[in-house]
Amino acid sequence: MTPYASVLIVHVTAVFVMCAVLGFELLFLVRLRGASSLAEAAPWMNPIPKLPGIAGGSILTILLSGIYLVRESSHFHEAWPRIAVAAVFLMAPLGAFTGRRMNAVRKAPTTEKLQDAMLKVSLAIRIATFFGIFLIVSAKPGTWESVALLAACLALGLLSSTLPWRQENAGLRKSSTIS
Q1: Whole-model pTM?
Q2: d(Cα 130, Cα 127) in Å, to the nearest integer?
Q3: What is the tens place of the pLDDT at every residue in 8-32?
Q4: How distant, in Å, are the alpha carbons of 10, 11, 111, 128 from that of 90?
Q5: CB contact at 8 A, 96 and 40
Q6: How far, in Å, CA of 18 to CA of 54, rounded?
Q7: What is the pLDDT of residues 106-150, one digit of tens each?
Q8: Cα–Cα separations (whole angstroms), residue 44 to 29, 37, 64, 171
Q9: Which of 168, 162, 104, 100 is nearest to 128 (CA)?
């Protein structure tokens, strides 16, 4: 196996791991927002304590392996890799922001913090950014197309953060207590 193929396997695996991390975070946030009491929310406050470290390691692996892959495939001079890297650097501070907000939620004596809208916005933007990076790397568009694609994904992420989650979760909870 060539070094390029080995790094590609590591890169794709890190992408899968990051998808799983974002999926877990979405599940946790939906459950937190749907909790009617602190006791109901407690299992979802920190169900996987090492998740932030896994996310950070995954992003770092994606970044470093992606730089290697782009350099080896002679796409380094194109705009799309730079825009994808810039988008990765957008995700990191949002992840740190979410970590700080989650610490505040864990320390909160009331359920009001469970409805923190910024957690929802941060997650929606990170998912949209990750999807935008995937699209950019897959399509390898020019500069303005890359920027437009990423901007459209970010706009969709912001828009999706305005969708109601609590009512859907409350409906799931009601249906699960009936059966």
Answers
A1: 0.85
A2: 5
A3: 999 999 999 999 999 999 999 988 8
A4: 22, 19, 29, 11
A5: no
A6: 8
A7: 887 677 778 888 999 999 999 999 999 999 999 999 999 999 999
A8: 8, 12, 32, 18
A9: 162
